[in-house]
Design brief:
mainly alpha; 13 helices; single chain; membrane; cell membrane; MetI-like fold
């Protein structure tokens, strides 16, 4: 008498409830954006009605027109795009360069300096506002976009992340071989190291872009002129001191969210690939 071999599930098989959980998580993540659009198509009275409305209204274009009349919103979007792009590219390159120096170059005080960089992550952002504003004032950069761009071109987290990634992915032998072949330090970084860590640098730059796009505190302090507002400050300008028109505010918020949504649709797959590559190699 023979006994049948036990049946095993195929490795990697995805169960039906996994798709159900993913679908539920997707709906939960997209619902706030949908609700924002609903409020952006109605007025404050409709938005606060109970039970709440679940069908968009027909007031969206009118509210968008009011947004554009109240503040220079298109200019604010362009300002946010310029600032966020500069910060994203700057963090991708400069943090990778600093991470390469800490990971592969030998110089006096390297470990101490890296420890100081890491310790700056424990300092609350609010504590740096006053000295940072004083520096911008001395440079004559108050109410300019470079006051937003320059302080954000590098970050302690980005340097730490790129240093760890470069340590895990680039061997000392590769750097030594390039040096023996006559490459200088910049050539080793730009032609050898940076192409290898480009996916991680891309993800870091994307995080920097999103952080700069959503930043409110520092632009609110340093910007004065409406033509230099970023998107978040323009949304604040849509509200007066006594009440908030929810439809108007949500219309501006929806317009400011659409570019980020488009960005993630375009580069989402590449971002996930960069994160996974760093996770497997790290």
């Amino acid at each position: 008498m023979t006994t049948a071999a036990p049946r095993h599930r195929r490795p990697g098989r995805v169960r039906w409830w996994t798709y159900l959980l993913l679908a539920a998580a997707t709906v939960a993540c997209l619902f706030p954006l949908y609700w924002m659009f609903i409020v952006a198509t109605t007025d404050t009275a409709t938005a606060t009605r109970m039970p709440p409305e679940v069908v968009p209204g027909d007031n969206f274009l009118h509210l968008v027109g009011l947004v554009l009349e109240t503040v220079p919103f298109l200019q604010a979007l362009l300002n946010s795009l310029a600032v966020a792009t500069a910060i994203g590219v700057g963090q991708a390159v400069l943090c990778a360069l600093a991470g390469f120096a800490f990971a592969k170059l030998s110089f006096p005080g390297r470990n101490t300096l890296f420890l100081l960089v890491v310790l700056t992550m424990t300092v609350p952002t609010q504590l740096s506002v006053i000295p940072q504003y004083m520096i911008m004032s001395q440079l004559g950069w108050v109410d300019t976009l470079q006051a937003l761009i320059v302080p954000g071109l590098a970050s302690a987290f980005g340097i730490f992340w790129m240093r760890q990634h470069i340590t895990a992915t680039i061997s000392d032998e590769l750097v030594q071989a390039a040096t023996i072949d006559g490459a200088n330090t910049w050539q080793v970084f730009w032609r050898i190291a940076f192409p290898i860590v480009r996916p991680a640098a891309f993800v870091l730059g994307l995080f920097g872009f999103v952080t700069a796009w959503n930043d409110f505190l520092w632009p609110f302090i340093v910007l004065k002129s409406p033509e230099r507002y970023t998107a978040q400050i323009a949304i604040k300008a849509l509200q007066n001191s006594y009440d908030v028109d929810l439809g108007l505010a949500m219309s501006g918020s929806f317009l400011a969210t659409v570019p980020l949504a488009v960005l993630f649709v375009i580069v989402g797959r590449r971002m996930v690939a960069g994160i996974l590559e760093g996770a497997f190699k790290g």
